Amino acid sequence: MIYTFLGPEGTFTEAALLKVPGSRDAVRIPSSSVNEALDRVRRGEADAAMVPIENSVEGGVTATLDAISTGPELRIVREELVPITFVLVARPGTSLAEVKRVFTHGHAWAQCRAWAASNIPTAEYVPASSTAAGAIALLEDGSLPGDAAICGPIVADEHPELNVLAADIGDNPGAVTRFILVSRPAGLPPRTGADKTTVAVPLPEDHPGALMEILWQFASRGVNLSRIESRPTGEYLGHYFFSIDAEGHARDARVADALAGLHRISPGTRFLGSYSRADAVEPTVGPINADEAFDASRAWVSGILGD
Amino acid sequence: MIYTFLGPEGTFTEAALLKVPGSRDAVRIPSSSVNEALDRVRRGEADAAMVPIENSVEGGVTATLDAISTGPELRIVREELVPITFVLVARPGTSLAEVKRVFTHGHAWAQCRAWAASNIPTAEYVPASSTAAGAIALLEDGSLPGDAAICGPIVADEHPELNVLAADIGDNPGAVTRFILVSRPAGLPPRTGADKTTVAVPLPEDHPGALMEILWQFASRGVNLSRIESRPTGEYLGHYFFSIDAEGHARDARVADALAGLHRISPGTRFLGSYSRADAVEPTVGPINADEAFDASRAWVSGILGD
Amino acid sequence: MIYTFLGPEGTFTEAALLKVPGSRDAVRIPSSSVNEALDRVRRGEADAAMVPIENSVEGGVTATLDAISTGPELRIVREELVPITFVLVARPGTSLAEVKRVFTHGHAWAQCRAWAASNIPTAEYVPASSTAAGAIALLEDGSLPGDAAICGPIVADEHPELNVLAADIGDNPGAVTRFILVSRPAGLPPRTGADKTTVAVPLPEDHPGALMEILWQFASRGVNLSRIESRPTGEYLGHYFFSIDAEGHARDARVADALAGLHRISPGTRFLGSYSRADAVEPTVGPINADEAFDASRAWVSGILGD
Amino acid sequence: MIYTFLGPEGTFTEAALLKVPGSRDAVRIPSSSVNEALDRVRRGEADAAMVPIENSVEGGVTATLDAISTGPELRIVREELVPITFVLVARPGTSLAEVKRVFTHGHAWAQCRAWAASNIPTAEYVPASSTAAGAIALLEDGSLPGDAAICGPIVADEHPELNVLAADIGDNPGAVTRFILVSRPAGLPPRTGADKTTVAVPLPEDHPGALMEILWQFASRGVNLSRIESRPTGEYLGHYFFSIDAEGHARDARVADALAGLHRISPGTRFLGSYSRADAVEPTVGPINADEAFDASRAWVSGILGD
């Protein structure tokens, strides 16, 4: 197996990838962007890509939502949840009081803003392309005394030459990021009973009820949504598609029926995968939404039609 | 073919039956009640029964709605619309000004009430078991001077010994009654493109949204309803089933899909037939509700499931 | 107080009227039809009319539903529930085995049909204008041996010269009829916490969602419906109004808000009264549908508008 | 008037601010982040802040959506639309073929990705805190030959010492960004007939219908939505609020009624302003959603209640 992931090494994305059984012994190629990671999969240079899709603080990762919803089809085959914690690191010789500049990714900075305002109020934020890149830059020529970086603990572990000035500096202690493993379309992962299905649904028309009709396809079959995000199609302001995670597997009759309904009212609907939930929570399914109810209703109609 | 109909001879129901091709040369047995007519079909003593189901003034014929929705299954295979006009008849020697009592069926009396109030204000209403029975009773012993009857023109035509004192006395000139031809379950009548489907749907639960969920099964597939009536199940006040006529044929994908949805949320749903509309009006079906859209959505889901 | 009721004396309607406090000492005028009773109220000849509106076996009383929904406005101010039981009576000298003809109202005959089929299978049904009228006719000249009548126990009690051949002959032991007391519009009866509100709502347009929009006005405010019936407007087949009983009082904010919504989408909506429930059952109202939630939301909007 | 805006000078945000009448002669303070800009308004250091809220390619500006929806209340009083075009600049002496590094903001890089892949495929992206900052850095010590920046034309205009190597390099020619002018709560801007209302609505509960109930508050009053975005509350994955732009003004009865409904089902709903639309498009309002219909329905209910 060849994996790629949103790099560089030492990011939370690599941590997510390492939770996949067998990944430690597989080839793991860092990619410099979500698009690059997914394109590697599309071109067959990698079998699967691990990329972030959602953060409990920052929300959806728009680069991922957009990239999986356009271009050649891909499939989500797995999800991983990684708790997000941050550390402030610097080279030996720089104390917390001496920090003048903080290199990190914008999302990380956003999640440590309150801590920084209280503890290093005069420090200047310098954007880096990733948390790991910001930290590794401290070790390069050109780094100045007073430079520090916010990164994940994994980077500090791998680089003992960096001092941890402060740990657990994220403003939301329960912050978690959700990652998805994406491959080319192939057979569906097996139904486990605690599954999730992801779709991208273009809003068919701009009228007051269009989004309701989409949502009703789920609600009328008792299918809960665990995530819904609007994304611009890029064509014009107000033209959207919706990226939706629903409870259940395409092999659940209620989900398959909802998918058929979605495709009917919005034929550009894209199926992005059914896969087991990282939290293993099984949904409650009432009797009218159970497979048996769907099977019975179809058999009843077939009887009427004389099929 | 052996037909039965809600008799006696001379009623609008017989007029409806005579509109069925071939019925004039077939055996036609009058029944004394809707239940008797339907039971003759159930027992195989008749091939089909013509009974009234709906009147544009009086509403649903509850005896029919209830009788076809319970007991051994029956199927509506045809509908007929008959304009309802009334005449006032009496034996020779009784003028309009002399009318003291009016024999007729309660529904007919209700539909001529305004005319009667203006033209024979002092006349007393005497209920009869049918309009024809009321008229024929005038010819029997015991009939008194001043007795009259309200009936359909067909009865007057067949009984020239009755004088027509006034014609077209119905309060609603456009009044029409709809009749259905009912047989034992067999193959569905062919889809004509201008069809109607009738179902009886028990309200699954008494919560604010239960009826909406039923209606949504139709609305979400663009299926118009041409009639909806609540009927008590007889168990307790507030426990209903709904008798519904929907546009379209069970062989229309949108109708079949709606039927499946109904059965799922209310498993006691009873299919009462798909048959061509008497008015031959074809519904407007948008592209998302066309057979092609349903076929395409199912093919798409099958592709996802690898079926 | 002057009351009128659907007569004659001895019917279940009079029994319902006698349950109204003070009615035993008031003037009670029988009317020969629902329309006559209501017109007496409209003309000021009576202060209130008691008429049947719904039967647990036969369904809505269409004459009442139609009469209160058209013409000069009236208001329902009270409801009564009366258990319906039937007896078979005859003049002394006629035994059960000798019964040849049964005089009664069509609704009563419908509710005793199974008993009659088992116990007096050869007896002929003769329609009467009311159950009481059928029984009283037995005492008149022209009554023949073998004549019997189905009526309420109250008639037998008042006419000891009639023999009760069989009691409790109704096919549904729990049958109950609901009656309403109707007056000219005046102040609303007080809110008791266990109330009912009745409206007549013309279906604004014949499209798949019109009825849903009406129902949603109730459902979206947590207002349960205890009765819904479609009635033809009489103009043409398929043109309806809906007669609806909803839980709650017009002074409940959720009901007042629903009424405003109904009037907006169907300006012909007619308010027919708020009155206490005969069964005194109080509805469960969630916090988002309580008066406090409506008051708070209006205050919030007023604050925004700077009113 | 003192304005602040998401700086530095030369960004599209300043271009948006300069479209506000009178702003050219007012004090204009750049802020280094959306939060800083809004906090200046909250503290009274500025009267209003111009910040981006939505981009036709990149979607919602999450920093803005989150910052206006939490903390002390603010109000949107105006919107501006600015077409987004990009230029590639460098110091004299660097030609297009020689570009090795491109400094710019991540959003700008994302919008020029296809152009860059075709025209400067080997160039490395270096994140900058804004497009203007990336361009100005070229003029500082430490800039190397081969360095370039992607920025808006306004920056190139103000810095003639930078060469424009390529213009109109955005991948979406019609790209536009929407900016909002935010102030402390005060009286509402007047209703113009072509208005927009923005709200933040916490999802009250995680059940299949919760979002539908929110949307229905708009749809049932004929209020179109022009933008809807889910944002995490930050508490846990799957806990959202919805940021919504609806057509119309809080002084439109249909909008006020929808706001009341929203507040009732989600009391944490925050009103973020009603303001005239930059595109001046007036919505189509059917008769049942016009102010007159709301006024009439309330008057009708008041009449019933005897108020």
What does this structure look like?
The structure is a homotetramer of 307-residue chains. Chain A is α/β, with parallel strands linked by helices and 307 residues long. Chain A has three domains: 1-84 and 174-186, Periplasmic binding protein-like II (D-Maltodextrin-Binding Protein, domain 2); 87-167, Periplasmic binding protein-like II (D-Maltodextrin-Binding Protein, domain 2, 3-Layer(aba) Sandwich), CATH 3.40.190.10; 188-307, ACT domain (Alpha-Beta Plaits). Helices cover 29% and strands 29% of the residues of chain A. The first copy, chain A, is built from ten helices and 15 strands. The first copy, chain A, has helices spanning 12-18, 34-42, 62-69, 106-111, 113-119, 131-137, 153-158, 210-219, 253-265, 291-305, and strands at 2-6, 27-31, 48-55, 59-60, 75-83, 87-90, 101-104, 124-127, 147-151, 163-167, 176-183, 195-202, 225-232, 240-247, 270-276. In chain A, strands 1, 2, 3, 4, 5 and 11 form a six-stranded mixed sheet that branches. A five-stranded mixed sheet of chain A has the order 8-7-9-6-10. In chain A, strand 13 and strand 14 (240-247) form a beta hairpin. Chain A is elongated, with a radius of gyration of 22 Å. The first copy, chain A, starts with a strand and ends with a helix. The model of chain A has no long low-confidence stretch (mean pLDDT 93). Chains in contact: A-B, A-D, B-C, C-D.
